[in-house]
């Protein structure tokens, strides 16, 4: 009996959808409405951590918004947004630790979304975090431990997962 080890199985841990606006005010509120329209989840504001005087950015200033999807919602959202990209993900979008990202140029490209003249045209970024059972040991508060080299997700494993499970074409 040559069964696959269930601890080595890769799954989608979470999907973070982000819009970077760069300033607070009306544009940020439009970004939040776009995220809530596309994901059907509540969006939160993100704040700057560093000071960039040339751009007028200081720590604590709201400059964008994001929402996090998990479980079935995450898988459905990935399938929907990959349709907007013709199921293509560039190979350069994959990192060495099981994360890949891609952008949607206009929220109108997502199937089933209608144009709202009050919101204008804006795109967003989709960041997909892959995981394995047992990754919790590095995130827990008590008795934190490291994940071994063989248990980490490599770039090749992430690409293979995207091709097989998500039906994506990696170029």
Tell me what you see in this structure.
The termini are far apart. The chain has a single domain, classed as 50s Ribosomal Protein L5, Chain: A, CATH 3.30.1440.10. The chain has helices spanning 26-39, 71-84, 155-164; strands at residues 10-20, 44-47, 62-69, 88-89, 99-104, 124-132, 169-170. The chain is α+β, with helices and mostly antiparallel strands and 171 residues long. The longest helix has 14 residues, at 26-39. The mean pLDDT is 91. A five-stranded antiparallel beta sheet has the order 2-3-1-6-5, with helices on one face. The chain has a two-stranded parallel ribbon with strand order 4-7. The protein is built from three helices and seven strands; from the N terminus they run E-H-E-E-H-E-E-E-H-E. 22% of the residues lie in helices and 25% in strands.
